[in-house]
Structure formats: C-alpha cells, structure tokens
Amino acid sequence: MSYPSPGGRNINSVSNLEILHSNQLWLLMSNYTLQPTTALTENLHISSLSKDAEALIDEVYWSDTPRPLCGWRALAQIQQILRRELLAKGPLRQGRRREYLLRLVIEYADGNQGKIYKFTSAEDTEGYSCELARDFPAQRLLSIVSLSSLNIELARVRLKDSLVELSGSEAEALISAISKYSQGISTPSLWPSAG
Predict the structure, then answer these.
(1) I need a labelling partner for 46 at 20 to 30 A (CA). Which of 96, 131, 169, 172 fits?
(2) How high is the pLDDT of residue 77?
(3) Residue closest to 181 by CA, chosen among 145, 154, 157
(4) What is the reported pLDDT for 137?
(5) Residue 141: C-alpha distances to residues 80, 117, 134, 192 (Å)
(6) Nearest by Cα to 82 from 115, 46, 107, 49
(7) How far apart, in whole angstroms, are the C-alpha atoms of residue 191 and residue 133?
(8) Which residues of the chain have pLDDT under 70?
C-alpha cells in the first residue's frame, strides 16, 4: 500500500514496507520497527492497534529505553491489558522517583493470554525508563527491594507489606537470581537479555 505525498512520491516506496499504524509521533511499519512521523506522514490516520497496545508503545517511545525487550511485535499484538499487578515499589531515592515493577496480564488479538513485565523508573532531571519484557525480571526485582525484605513462601513472596503471587517459573527465576547475587556472580541491577 502506498500513500502519495504532496510531491507525488509514494511515502513507502523507498523501503517497500507497509505502514501498519500511525499516530502523531510514530509509524509502526510492517517489519515491526518504529519510524518517526515526518511532514509527509503526519496527516495519515492508520489504526490497527488496540488502545492498550498503542499506549504501551507510546510509553516506551517517550522513554529513554530504545526498544522493549519483548519486541514491538509483541506489543502490537496486545488486544487489551486485563490486569495490572504491582510486584514491587522501590523506596524514594534522592534525585529519583520510585521504581516500579508490574506484571501485566494481557490478552492478545488471537485470544490467548500472556504476561509482560513492566519496569519504570524516572529521574527528576534526567529521563524516564520504561522496560517491557516477557521473562520474569528477577534481578530487576532485587534491584528494587533489599534481600532482607524478601521472604519466599512456596510461590509467594512477601515484599515489605504485600504478598505477591508468583508462578513456579517466576519463583525459580527469583531464587536463581538471589543465589547468583549472594555468590557475587551477578549484580541485582541487570535486566534479562532479549531472547
């Protein structure tokens, strides 16, 4: 599909990619990359994403995070966020706002359900970070809460005043990260790599 520009040149003729979705700031291309909106494309109104998918993509786009670890395609396929579950809220730190780790229970366009983990952090004068991943970010959780505040109870973790339910794989990932951290193998500030 081509969109003629005022000069007669087709907008996507150079890349041979189709525009799947557009808003005032970015275009989602058929290879699931984001491109900034240009003067040629700013008046396009192509809508193929759900409101929840567009909101998550916007949040990453506005942040200092270059791309979500789960990929733009995974976000584009979200039909709706069914639940937002707070897993951890970090303490207020000088010069920073709180860090948050949430588990988003989502429904994809094909009807299947899944989980995406969302970590956000902002500095008062610097920038905003929004990381989204499919794998449970056990090491990121450890960077938010201190080891002394963890109390693992089967598949439940008590983080200060709240009890968080974890799936078996989430609990195993957390235990593995705690073990590596306590042995000095890794630091708690790492986010799982994109897979």
Answers:
(1) 131
(2) 96
(3) 145
(4) 82
(5) 25, 11, 14, 11
(6) 107
(7) 9
(8) 1-15, 93-97, 123-126, 146-161, 163, 168, 181-195
